[in-house]
Design a protein that fits this description.
Blueprint: E1 12-19, E2 36-39, H1 47-50, E3 58-66, H2 75-92, E4 97-102, H3 114-126, E5 132-136, H4 144-149, E6 152-155, H5 164-181, E7 186-192, H6 208-213, H7 215-218, E8 224-230, E9 243-249, H8 252-268
Parallel strand pairs: 1-3, 1-4, 4-5, 5-6
Antiparallel strand pairs: 2-3, 7-9, 8-9
Length: 274
């Protein structure tokens, strides 16, 4: 394992994830045939991971599955994805970091909080000292289990999504920063008890446009690495469905203040979405 702060040593970073928006109200099931599967070096051909060439790291591709929005994932299909990911991770240990490209709106038949199950399993394999950074769609749901399993979080800030690559860069840049400096950031999240569909929360229109426009200036503070405002994903029936404000950083006082401010602003605007 390379030591933090040794710039001459290229950190070893595993990359992977899975990406689908699943409606729990769809009576069908998404199986492996509905996904584009990327294994090993194939991951570098996907836009979520092609950007790794911009960073001075030894990137180890693991497993990535991507599907169009659809039905709940068949339980056996998900179990296969998870086991293959964990198996490939074990083969490349030890690691200096992990980057996961996730959506946040996966729903596995018979299970709540698919992403929470996935990242918790990865944390168990890589251990408590390996930093994990994730990228999310803003139409994704977060849970305490997700927050407890990762170190860094960044989500899209546009809907329609035109900042996907920028979001991947933010998540990966934070991971590189943590590895190179030896500074381990924390997460602060504020769930917001509002559930709205994407059709009413486009960032092209108010009030979402104004809420997201505030983020760059708000995160320009020492000790704050990233701010994310989650609309959440409403088309699934599980307990974690909620909007949320999520802050990554090292200044817990500033992080708490910003998460609270973003959450309050969203709550105050809840009746103006149309």
């Amino acid at each position: 394992l390379s030591q933090p702060g040794n710039a001459h040593m290229r950190p070893k970073i595993a990359i992977g994830g899975f990406h689908i928006e699943s409606s729990s109200y769809n009576p069908s099931r998404s199986t492996e045939d509905d996904f584009e599967i990327y294994r090993g070096a194939e991951l570098f051909s996907h836009s979520a991971f092609s950007l790794t060439s911009d960073y001075d790291g030894e990137f180890t591709p693991v497993f990535f599955a991507h599907a169009l929005p659809g039905a709940p994932i068949d339980a056996g299909t998900y179990a296969g994805f998870k086991e293959e990911t964990l198996t490939r991770l074990r083969e490349v240990l030890p690691l200096d970091g992990v980057y996961l490209a996730l959506h946040g709106a996966a729903f596995v038949a018979g299970m709540d909080d698919a992403e929470g199950d996935f990242v918790a399993a990865i944390r168990a394999v890589v251990g408590p000292d390996c930093p994990i950074s994730v990228s999310y769609d803003l139409h994704g749901n977060v849970s305490q289990r997700v927050i407890d399993s990762i170190d860094m979080f960044s989500a899209y800030r546009t809907a329609p999504h035109i900042d996907v690559i920028e979001t991947h860069h933010r998540a990966l840049s934070m991971l590189m920063r943590a590895i190179e400096t030896g500074v381990r950031p924390k997460l602060c999240w504020a769930p917001i008890p509002v559930s709205l569909p994407g059709e009413t929360t486009s960032t092209e229109d108010e009030p979402a446009r104004g809420l997201y426009a505030k983020i760059p200036a708000m995160e320009d503070l020492d000790g704050v690495w990233d701010l994310s405002l989650m609309v959440g994903y409403v088309w699934v029936d599980e307990p974690r469905v909620t909007a949320a404000a999520i802050v990554t950083g090292v200044d817990e006082i500033a992080m708490t203040r910003l998460a609270t401010q973003m959450a309050q602003d969203y709550w105050d605007a809840r009746d103006r979405f149309d």
